[in-house]
Amino acid sequence: MAYKTDIQIAREANKLKIQEIGAKLGIPEDDLLPYGHDKAKVSQSFINGVQDRANGKLILVTAINPTPAGEGKTTTTVGLGDGLNRIGKKAAICIREASLGPNFGMKGGAAGGGRAQIVPMEDMNLHFTGDFHAITSAHALLSAMIDNHIYWGNELDIDLRRVVWRRVVDMNDRALRQVNVSLGGVSNGFPREDGFDITVASEVMAILCLSNDLSDLQKRLGNMIVAYRRDRTPVFARDLKADGAMTVLLKDAMQPNLVQTLENNPAFVHGGPFANIAHGCNSVIATKTALKLADYVVTEAGFGADLGAEKFMNIKCRKAGLAPAVVVCVATVRAMKMNGGVAKADLGTENVEAVQQGCPNLGRHIENLKSFGVPVVVAINHFVTDTDAEVQAIKDFVASMGAEAILSRHWELGSEGSETLATRVAEIAEADTANFAPIYPDDMPLAEKIQTICRKIYRADAATMDDKILKQLRDWEEQGYGDLPVCMAKTQYSFSTDPTQRGAPTGHRVLVREVRLSAGAGFVVAVCGEIMTMPGLPRHPSAETIMLNADGQIEGLF
């Protein structure tokens, strides 16, 4: 049977005007700032006016380590949100915005799939409301002001060898990872080494996603460290007087975006840090706003639970005072077979033994999630090639782990297919059995926080850090940054730093190659293994097949 593509389904959506979607959450028309007919920003004044309301239940959707077979985490997030509304709950969805880099690289889109999508799909996967452009521009402004300050005499005595603020662009472009700037003579400034990260790795992105309001945003922007002097003292963005203008550029981007699912349920789509190189969660302001307006809020954390969920718990929840009532871990029969050693070309053939051999990866994630004190439900995202025996193998394994697995067919059937999952998740959330706590305290030394994540979450024997890195961490502790959480930058494909090592490896070591202080965002980044903060395009990027058809419609996004 031939199925319609995601973009075909999205194009046929019966969308409501965004004012009608806002009305479902009690948002007056005057507090919606529309971008066309089907998307809008929610005003800060309205958000300020609902802060005295009680919070709804927060549900986190995470997943096993991603495989080329696809897991469907965003699809499940949307399907669960629609399912909760179907069974009579007032639910909203909170996800991240899509980055142009992976959309034109490998991914092709990030709005869900099948009958569980957020629309307008094309807008969300391209320019949307311009938030990423605003973040890129604010970041670029600071970059320009650093080199401009140096050019006009360097009053702050910045050491050109110790400028730590890199440039960004929202595109996968490996050629920009390391560059030389200010070449071409006296009039162009003082030559130095520089480099680009992708916009979603920008500290400005992290700050926007962790700030509560514009005042908090400007304070955090000012606290960013951009360089060091020869005496190793830090130079902050506020020293360059850049924080005010950057806040102006981010004024509109700070307001959450409201859109809708295919079933016309409300969805906040705001912020977009990657989970393999940043903290991987949508904005705090969007999540907190949704919790004031809905009884249930379904949000997701990027990539597998070892990255996205760990950072959601240890960074976002810690910083924002949030706590999930239940966690849904997405798995698929296909991914279990890949973890069990089956090639992608053979995934359509029943292989119960391979499913069983691949389940330890899922089991590791269940154990890790439970270590945060939260109940866990496994959502088996259904594919049409799955057999009853393969599905039962996952259910049996999950039961042996003291959890429950539920088959969900939201991709094919929308909320009708996720009704069972939604019912069980709501029951668990309402039981209030969660006793959430991060896995390390604020006052633990930074190096030990890194070791704790590597041992408890990745099951590594240890993290390997050279003396230079250990000294850097101690210096930051002496400067007052020792209470910050740690953001691990690591491959998403494995618990180890080897992307080819699937399953649930043990006995490995995590090489910490570099550490970066994000003083404004409020965390320390540990760059591990071969991970890059500027991805490259694959041999045949999705951009090769994205185009306009004869009717002027976009093709190739999926």
From TrEMBL:
<dbReference type="InterPro" id="IPR020628">
    <property type="entry name" value="Formate_THF_ligase_CS"/>
</dbReference>
<keyword id="KW-0436">Ligase</keyword>
<keyword id="KW-0547">Nucleotide-binding</keyword>
<dbReference type="InterPro" id="IPR000559">
    <property type="entry name" value="Formate_THF_ligase"/>
</dbReference>
<dbReference type="Pfam" id="PF01268">
    <property type="entry name" value="FTHFS"/>
</dbReference>
<feature type="binding site">
    <location>
        <begin position="67"/>
        <end position="74"/>
    </location>
    <ligand>
        <name>ATP</name>
    </ligand>
</feature>
<comment type="similarity">
    <text>Belongs to the formate--tetrahydrofolate ligase family.</text>
</comment>
<protein>
    <recommendedName>
        <fullName>Formate--tetrahydrofolate ligase</fullName>
        <ecNumber>6.3.4.3</ecNumber>
    </recommendedName>
</protein>
<comment type="pathway">
    <text>One-carbon metabolism; tetrahydrofolate interconversion.</text>
</comment>
<keyword id="KW-0067">ATP-binding</keyword>
<keyword id="KW-0554">One-carbon metabolism</keyword>
<dbReference type="GO" id="GO:0035999">
    <property type="term" value="P:tetrahydrofolate interconversion"/>
</dbReference>
<dbReference type="GO" id="GO:0005524">
    <property type="term" value="F:ATP binding"/>
</dbReference>
<dbReference type="InterPro" id="IPR027417">
    <property type="entry name" value="P-loop_NTPase"/>
</dbReference>
<dbReference type="GO" id="GO:0004329">
    <property type="term" value="F:formate-tetrahydrofolate ligase activity"/>
</dbReference>
